[in-house]
Design a protein that fits this description.
Largest sheet: 7 strands, mixed
Number of helices: 10
Order of helices and strands: EHEEEEHEHEHEHHEEHEHEEHH
Number of domains: 2
CATH class of the largest domain: Alpha Beta
Number of strands: 13
CATH topology of the largest domain: Rossmann fold
Distance between the termini: 14 Å
Oligomer: single chain
CATH superfamily of the largest domain: NAD(P)-binding Rossmann-like Domain
Strand content: 15-25%
Helix content: 25-40%
Shape: globular
Structural class: alpha/beta
């Protein structure tokens, strides 16, 4: 006997990935519904060997399901998550709308799985920013071992984090350069093909962007509010896969070898790190994978108790869809979602 699930934002990059991961991980769902905006009514999405037709968000009866995976953007989530929760479902939301709400748990299961128990206040659980998700998976074991004082992060974020139109823009600009028909940017403010853009999100008065602020605010909420972070987010001409150069100042000594041993055994992490054999992971190699990959672990020679490492993950998976499904699995494992409940409401 399985649960009943609706995926809202079913036709987007993350929505389609949610269906893939639900199928790959054999999530116990008796019924799965694809829900999107009115303009997507009748469009089809794949779920394993099945094809689902999209339902209209405005007309869908959410009392038919007990779990909703939401990936429709912040404005839609702000309006619809409370409505869906009032209908009796639990919402796992991928947008930024609820992440910093004190009554909404922000969860990465490898980091703070117990926080899902805070769902009851609003029946909403938030997924972190895609770059934050992989970062906290790597930071948590280090913080648990010796404590983290300060983190400096530079991200190298793929265009898929900005949606399908951004991926199309990179593809079209790249083709255009080779045929001498360069296209003006429309999604990004500057050309992304063969370029990097040191701005993701909107600039704030302090000179940082809201994307950078998300990373330090969310990390503090999930791990420890005392950790100091400085972040620079950069968009790069990569289709899928976010990378990060992470400098960590610890509260106590830890060698690179000790850190490698710790990370190798930590949940959600795959350590691939052998400089002598040129073993390290690039974003292209992480596409389609579940893990957060760590490479190039070494001492930060600029501080007494410092480490540096390279962190890569599929942003559509661990950064969004996979993490949401892992949260759903946590709800099942803890008996918060019970299949019989959905049957009883039918």
């Amino acid at each position: 006997m399985g649960t009943r699930i609706a995926v809202v934002g079913a036709t987007g990059n993350v929505g389609r990935e949610l269906f893939n991961i639900l199928d790959e991980r054999l999530f116990p769902a008796d019924e799965v519904y694809a829900v999107a905006s009115r303009r997507s009514i009748g469009k089809e999405v794949s779920f394993g060997d099945r094809t689902l037709k999209c339902h209209d968000l405005e007309q869908f009866d959410f009392s038919r399901v007990d779990l909703v995976l939401m990936s429709a953007g912040g404005k839609v989530s702000k309006v619809w998550c409370p409505k869906i929760a009032a209908a009796g479902a639990i919402v796992i939301d991928n947008s930024s709308a609820w992440r910093m709400d004190p009554d909404v748990p922000l969860v990465v299961p490898e980091v703070n799985a117990d926080s899902v128990m805070g769902y009851a206040k609003k029946r909403i659980i938030a997924n972190p920013n895609c770059s934050t998700a992989q970062l906290v998976v790597a930071l948590k074991p280090l913080h648990d071992a010796v404590g983290i004082k300060r983190v400096v992060v530079s991200t190298y974020q793929s265009v898929s984090g900005a949606g399908k139109e951004a991926m199309d823009e990179l593809w079209n600009q790249t083709k255009g350069i080779f045929v001498n028909a360069e296209l003006a940017p429309t999604v990004f403010e500057k050309e992304i093909a063969f370029n990097v853009i040191p701005k993701i999100g909107d600039f704030l008065p302090d000179g940082y962007t809201d994307e950078e602020a998300k990373m330090w605010n969310e990390t503090r909420k999930m791990i420890d509010p005392s950790i100091k972070l400085s972040v620079t987010c950069v968009r790069v001409p990569v289709f899928v896969g976010h990378s990060e150069a992470v400098h960590v100042e610890l509260n106590g000594p830890m060698s690179a070898k000790e850190a490698q041993a710790l990370l190798r055994e930590s949940p959600g992490i795959m350590l691939l790190d052998d400089p002598a054999k040129d073993v390290y992971v690039t974003p292209k190699e992480c596409v389609g994978e579940w893990a957060t990959f760590i490479s190039r672990v070494r001492k930060d020679v600029s501080v007494e108790n410092g480490l540096v490492f390279w962190c890569v993950s599929d942003n559509l998976r661990k950064g969004a869809a996979l993490n949401a499904v892992q949260i759903a699995e946590e709800l099942l494992n803890r008996g918060i979602i019970k299949p019989e409940t959905a049957k009883a409401r039918a």
